[in-house]
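Thread title: Can someone regenerate the structure for this chain?

I was given the following input by a collaborator and told the matching structure tokens would be attached. They weren't. Posting the sequence so someone can regenerate them.
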Amino acid sequence: MGNINQFNFVKENIQIINGPILDIGSKDYGNTPDYRSLFPNFDYVGVDMEEGKGVDLLLDLTCDFYDINSKLGGRRFNAVICMSVLEHVSNPFRMCENISKLLNQNGIA
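Best answer:
Regenerated them for you:
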């Protein structure tokens, strides 16, 4: 999800973002910014709770971390993009905790 201002924010800060990248809420609804297009040479994983364009893996980041870790095969990320998603989840605090566990040391969200 997200909007043009958020897309521009990521674009303006592209120099501090390294892959692998996890994009949370990556489903394209027709007017969704394409963050993936900014990083054509990086390992990029788009996750969402619904299938659709831009979604590589169905994943609920409010689940138990063991399940999340299993679905991602133990992968960790140098960057997590999560725009206009937290206000839509049942437990944003748990989701943020899980996001922090998915980040490599010195990773950015």
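The first strand starts at residue 21 and ends at 24.
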